[in-house]
Amino acid sequence: MTQPFTEDLIITTGPEWLTAKRRESLALFNGLELPSESVEAWKYTQVGSIDFAALHPHAKRDAVTDIAQLPASVQKRLTGTDVGAYIVLDGPDVVYATPLPAELTAKGVIFTDLRSAVEQHADIVQKYLYSVVPAEVPDDTTIAAPGTTPSKSPDPSEGKFSALAAALWTNGAFVYVPRGVEVELPLGAFRVMSDAGSFTATRTLVVTEENAQVTFIDEQDSEALPGTYAFGAVELVVKDGARLRYVSVQNWGEGVTHIQRQRGDVGRDATLNSLVVTMGGTLSRTEMQSYLRGQGSDSEMLALYFANKDQHFDHYTLQHHAAANAHSDLLYKGVGDDQSVGVFSGMIKVDLNAQKTDAYQKHRTLMLSNEARNYSVPQLEINANDVRCSHGSTTGPVDQEQLFFLKSRGIREEQAEKMLVTAFLEDVLTRVPLKSVVAYIEGIIAEKVGAA
Q1: What is the pLDDT, as a whole number, of residue 171?
Q2: Which pairs count as long-range contacts for 44-49, CB under 8 Å and 24+ apart, including other chains?
Q3: Cβ(357)–Cβ(349) under 8 Å?
Q4: Is the pLDDT assigned to residue 154 strictly greater than 50?
């Protein structure tokens, strides 16, 4: 039994209800075993070697007054970006932020760090925090609506890291868009770490009320940090008729272990578009789940990843159809090189009354090395009889006919292979209408392909 964390790590300066929840979550974490290969969702990703007792909380950081004082990678990303407002967190602390435009504040839009939101917008935070990603794994057959008490976990060990994130989160981002308000420019949170051998736990909460609309960009970046851990949870509340686009770009440095659960709760005629990009870290486990609660709800789930060297990337997805006439479309594409490992486990789950479900799931992997490995487990669980569901997965090397065609046009083999890799991933990015984000991701891909 892993019991390394004590209550002295819990932040107790917040309201009583939050402190009580933190303590409850820590007790749950300490009482749960780590997921093992006997848990299907963790079959190919082993975390038993994590020495929690050896970790220390990420050191505090002071705020800066000039963007030039931020890490070079963050400066490069923020220069010329088209976000409407952003915050930069180094470990647990906000080190730089730009204000939300006055016209949005006048409409009731809130964008701040979560620690400040707990103090300044307590009623809203208390209503929604832990409602979509509770400390334990939610039982999707009976999950409660956001703002109400979630159900208990059917598989306790899967809740180990959710309990950790619920207990020890130090900060994160908070977005609230009132009913009928549309935020045109994206909002962004840029997280960095700079303390090797530490851990940080963050939490993101985005609430879009009825018929509201917003785009939120959640990025992570660091230099190489051996023995460093980033735990997290992302809660996305999409009320009836609302539209939320959520983008997660993980580009941690070598030596970082990243474990995060991202979950959206989608109401009637609402839309959640998500993009998960995994490029960095040594071990990364990202869960993206959409719970289609309302009739006519829609979820687009996109992802791309490029694993090389000894990187291990694990993606777990859930498209849960709980209401009739809902639609979901998943497209995950990845590249594996060197001695890397890629894992994809995706489930389409259709409840008894979710008739007229329309769900698609596609995972494709391009292998650049005979030593790289990839495990793909697409799954269906259908309990309704009037649905249209399909899933599939392909894994293979670079197409030799395409490679020959490019070489026959005078293109060197190395350059031709790079072109095919870029084209393979590009069709995911063409579905993302965010130019600066796409350009940033293309830059990371170019660096990866250059090393391939």
Answers
A1: 96
A2: 44/314, 44/341, 44/343, 44/375, 45/283, 45/285, 45/312, 45/314, 45/343, 47/259, 47/283, 47/285
A3: no
A4: no
Tens of pLDDT, residue by residue over 234-275, are 999 999 999 999 999 999 999 999 999 999 999 999 999 999
Strands of 243-251's sheet in order across: 93-97, 85-90, 187-193, 213-222, 243-251, 271-278, 298-307, 327-336, 358-367, 388-397
Of the two residues 146 and 306, the one the predictor is more confident about is: 306
Q: Which pair of tokens denotes residue 64? A: 């800066």
Query: What is the pLDDT, as a whole number, of residue 397?
Result: 87
d(CA 430, CA 426): 6
- Tokens representing 183 are 């935020």
Which pLDDT value is given to residue 151? 41
Beta-carbon contacts of 16 under 8 Å, excluding residues fewer than 6 positions away, are none
What is the Cα–Cα distance from 103 to 113, expressed in whole angstroms? 20
Tell me what pLDDT residue 149 has: 47
Question: For 356, which DSSP code?
Answer: T
Beta-ladder partners of 153? none
Nearest-CA neighbor of 233 among 278, 202, 274?
A: 202
Which span out of 55-69, 115-129, 387-401 was modeled with the highest average pLDDT?
115-129
* High-pLDDT (> 90) share of the chain, %: 70
Gyration radius from the chain CA atoms: 21
Confirm whether 412 is domain-assigned: no
Q: In sequence order, which ranges of 274-412 are alpha helices (DSSP H)?
A: 400-408
Whether 332 is covered by a domain: the verdict is yes
Q: Give dist(CA 302, CA 292) in Å, integer.
A: 16
Whether residue 360 is contained in a domain is answered as: yes
Token pair 């979509």: residue: 132
Q: With beta carbons less than 8 A apart as the criterion, state whether 380 and 389 touch.
A: yes
Number of domains in the chain: 1
- Specify the DSSP class assigned to residue 182: B
Number of Cβ within a 10 Å radius of residue 145: 14
CA-CA distance, 341 to 372, in Å (whole number)?
A: 6
* E-strand stretches of 66-170: 85-90, 93-97, 110-113
Owning domain of residue 256: 7-399
Closest CA to 160 of 313, 289, 5, 11: 5
The pLDDT value recorded for residue 105 is 97
Sign of the dihedral through C-alpha 391, 394, 399, 401:
negative
DSSP state of 91: T
Q: Which residues contact 252 (CB under 8 A, 6 or more apart)?
A: 193, 220, 221, 222, 225, 228, 230, 258, 280, 281, 284
| Residue 142: pLDDT band with limits 50, 70, 90 | very low
Q: Please, are residues 85 and 217 in contact by the beta-carbon 8 Å criterion?
A: no
Classify residue 259: in a domain, yes or no. yes
